[in-house]
Design goal:
The protein is mainly beta. The chain contains two helices and 13 strands; from the N terminus they run E-E-E-E-H-E-E-E-E-E-E-E-E-E-H.
């Protein structure tokens, strides 16, 4: 039996992963990551970094962040406490779903993760207070190659499920896309 059930989304290569639990009287165990099982989706890249965030306030938004090549990264995102509405925006040059977004509800109990490929911006809104997220990255963070799109950019038109209660100063100052933005060349 596979530890993961993979499901596609309307955006090409954007996947959800449902983790299969092993249960007994003590509780459960589920595998968050397996290089061998996910290797074809990771395109033989390895996980280089794991990060954890805590967002204290319900309604807060983090993102939309990405990295330019050659530091472009695939991310696997999981919620380990609380609930988050997790968003991926297609920024791939020439993609048929360029500037479209897709969102998934990630919770500490729905056993779902989001596999976000290179060329997508990522962000989320917390639907509970004290929400913790776990990120697996296929590239090391590179400040010189980081990119961001403003989470309220009208060209993307994300319909956040709750009023936004908080954003960092950095995220609030992220740029809006210009009409001449052609996307990320991978």
């Amino acid at each position: 039996m596979s530890n993961f059930i993979l499901n596609g989304t309307p955006l090409k290569n954007l996947q959800t992963i449902t983790h299969q639990n092993s249960k007994d009287s003590r509780g459960y165990l589920h595998r968050l990551f397996c290089q061998k099982t996910l290797n074809n989706l990771l395109k033989e890249k390895i996980i280089r970094q794991v990060n954890r965030t805590l967002t204290k306030k319900k309604g807060a938004v983090r993102g939309l962040h990405f990295q330019y090549p050659p530091s472009a990264e695939t991310k696997i995102i999981s919620c380990i406490r609380g609930k988050a509405w997790d968003v991926a925006v297609d920024l791939r040059k020439g993609s048929s779903t360029f500037l479209h977004y897709h969102a998934e509800l990630l919770t500490d109990d729905n056993r779902r993760s989001y596999l976000i490929p290179e060329g997508f911006a990522h962000g989320f809104q917390t639907l509970t207070s004290d929400c913790e997220m776990l990120y697996f990255h296929t590239s090391d963070y590179n400040k010189d190659l980081e990119g961001a799109v403003n989470a309220v950019d009208p060209m993307i038109g994300i319909n956040w499920p709750q009023p936004i209660t908080e954003r960092s100063e950095r995220d609030s100052n992220d740029p809006m896309l210009s009409d001449d933005f052609q996307g990320i060349e991978l």
